[in-house]
From TrEMBL:
All residue ranges annotated as the Terminase large subunit GpA endonuclease domain in the record: 292-570
Protein's recorded name: Phage terminase large subunit family protein
Pfam families: GpA_ATPase (PF05876), GpA_nuclease (PF20454)
Organism: Rhodopseudomonas palustris
Gene Ontology MF term list: ATP binding; ATP hydrolysis activity; endonuclease activity
Length: 601
């Protein structure tokens, strides 16, 4: 009888044990137990192993007492994988309406196809949970999935109208600084409004910063408890957040870079970094802030081989003399905001003093390609020619004004004749104009520009239209049906102006000027300055015209830089052809035509 009682007690014990919920895991532990990376997503496929600095970030995302998590991040620290692991944990353990916000539609699709789908498929606990893009119910799409107890929608910030239809308890935002203010307001603010009905909402925002004065992620981090990751020195055990100022190397030998402890002055080799990072810890510098965990991290603590101190030091040395490449390093490696010119004007008189004795009548040997930018005014066409060297140096060769109304055929005939010009090269041959961009943004002259450019597309004479916004590419083809099948290109004026301004204020002669250019041309080139203005309560960086200045020269340079992206010179072949002009200018042999007898029958 006792045996039977014992057996019943054992059955009862096992039954109760089966009903007991599993122990609650920290999100970092859950990710390492359940998330797997397949080939193609990671160079180290298999179960996720979080780096020490990732663990507290994950645990803050999983902590119900923390409503907001902000991460100022560089590249090479695995934030996207961490975000996907957190997303998987919500889907599997805490289902809810989830909204992921990314800058563009292409980013949204790439995140679903390249990250979420393969990682979910490789992780047994998540395999099949969010279903296929097209299921029998017809309710799933590539960017909208349903799962038991919740839903996942991935939305592009450039289409804020998509946010109106959704509510979410969990909001995940990646690359926040890549999102521009739309006509309806800041997309992140719009997305946050979709979470207001949930008392237990979770908002996770991460981004590499852009410009210091207008960075959303830096402003958001400033409102958090501002945690920094500090590592111990192997010699004195003093804790430090590693910054670039702590990395030193012998002159000319950045590959020998070491960490120099600010407390004891000892130089620490790269081989000690793994143990330093393993012993590192996050410290809140504003611990009085409750419910908003902020993390700031740079790539100097990354354990990836391509993020060694030596390699990062070499990247800095290569980037430091060009503001354009330096900004990339500051944003993506140091995770710091880049300090813009702050509205300071570029000195046109100083630029004019840099003029050199060259031009279209005396081309520099380095110039192996030429592009032109044409600005259309009501009574004239203004043209600037830029020569290009293989190393990217720009040579402003000349400026020309063709007087005449754009409505007159004679104006365009004179332009056409000029664009057929060839210019003698010191090697012996001559250069033609490789590509031309003509502004069609003025609604009054658009049809005349189209009428001139569309039939001459084979000569790479293209109509263009400028568009603002720092996230635009330099140039891309328009898909508008209004062009009636002609080639129209959209030019990202702000990023090109930024690119030109960086070259003008940098060193190394990135832009060189002909002494044939008048003083008024330099004044027009320096007619705008980068400033930060507030739009709908948000800081927005943009270029603003300096009062009283004309901008035709700047516009022409922008167009010539844009159309440079549409040519791909073979520099070696071009130099050789210029040295052998009789071969370059000889007509191509006519192809032999074989005619069948039946054609004449």
């Amino acid at each position: 009888m006792l045996d039977a009682v014992d057996r019943l007690e054992e059955i009862e014990r096992r039954a109760l044990a089966a009903l007991r919920p599993p122990p609650k895991l920290k999100l970092s532990d859950w990710i390492e137990r359940n998330i797997y990376l397949p080939d193609g997503v990671s160079s180290l496929p298999g179960a996720v192993r979080l780096w020490p600095f990732q663990r507290e970030i994950a645990d803050a995302i999983g902590d119900p007492a923390i409503e907001r998590v902000t991460l100022v991040k560089p590249v090479r620290v695995g934030f996207t994988t961490l975000l996907t692991g957190a997303l998987g944990a919500f889907v599997a353990n805490d289902p809810a309406p989830i909204l992921a916000l990314l800058p563009t539609e292409a980013d949204a699709r790439d995140y679903m196809v390249s990250e979420i789908e393969p990682i979910f498929s490789a992780s047994p606990v998540l395999n099949g949970v969010i279903g296929e893009a097209k299921d029998e119910s017809g309710r799933n799409t590539i960017l909208s999935r349903r799962f038991p107890g919740g839903s996942l929608k991935i939305v592009a910030a450039k289409a804020p109208r998509n946010l109106r239809r959704h509510t979410a308890r969990v909001l995940l935002v990646d690359e926040a600084d890549g999102m521009e203010v739309t006509a309806e307001g800041p997309p992140i603010a719009l997305a946050e409004k979709r979470t207001l009905s949930y008392a237990d909402r979770k908002i996770v925002i991460g981004s590499t910063p852009t410009f210091e004065g207008s960075s959303y992620i830096l402003r958001n981090y400033a409102l958090s408890d501002r945690r920094v990751f500090e590592v111990p020195c192997p010699e004195c055990d003093g804790r430090t957040e590693i910054n670039l100022q702590h990395i030193e190397w012998p002159t000319g030998k950045p590959h020998l870079a070491q960490f120099v402890c600010p407390a004891c002055g000892c130089a620490i080799d790269e081989r000690h970094k793994p143990e330093m990072v393993a012993a590192g810890a996050w410290r809140a510098t504003a611990p009085e802030v409750i419910g908003h965990a902020g993390f700031r991290l740079n790539a100097l603590v990354s354990l990836l081989p391509n993020a060694s101190w030596g390699k990062l030091a070499a990247e800095f040395v290569a980037a430091k003399d060009d503001r354009t490449t330096l900004q990339v390093f500051v944003n993506t490696i140091l995770a710091e905001g880049f300090r813009a010119d702050g509205g300071e004007e570029i000195d046109d008189e100083a630029l004019a003093k840099r003029a050199e004795p060259f031009g279209c009548e005396a081309l520099p040997e380095a110039v192996l390609a030429i592009t032109a930018g044409v600005d259309v005014q009501r009574d004239r066409l203004e043209i600037t020619l830029i020569g290009w060297a293989e190393d990217g140096t720009m040579y402003v060769l000349m400026t020309l004004v063709i007087w005449g109304k754009p409505s007159d055929d004679s104006t365009w005939a004179e332009l056409d004749e000029f664009l057929k010009s060839r210019f003698a090269h010191p090697f012996g041959g001559s250069l033609a104009i490789d590509a031309v961009a003509i502004d069609s943004g003025d609604g009054e002259t658009m049809d005349r520009v189209y009428g001139f450019c569309f039939p001459r597309a084979a000569r790479k004479i293209f109509a263009i239209k400028g568009d603002g916004g720092f996230r635009r590419p330099f140039i891309e083809r328009s898909t508008s049906s209004k062009t009636r099948g002609g080639l129209l290109f959209i030019v990202g004026t702000d990023p090109i102006k930024d690119h030109v301004a960086a070259k003008l204020t940098g060193s190394g002669g990135a832009i060189r000027f002909s002494n044939t250019l008048p003083a008024s041309w330099f004044e027009q080139l320096c007619s705008e300055r980068a400033i930060v203005r507030y739009s709908k309560g948000q800081p927005v960086r943009r270029f603003e015209r300096i009062p009283g200045r004309r901008a035709e020269a700047l516009d022409c340079v922008v167009y010539a830089v844009a159309v440079r992206q549409l040519i791909n010179p073979n520099w070696a072949s071009r130099a050789e052809a210029l040295r052998s002009p009789e071969l370059a200018l000889a007509p191509a042999p006519r192809p032999r035509v074989i005619r069948s007898n039946w054609v004449d029958q």
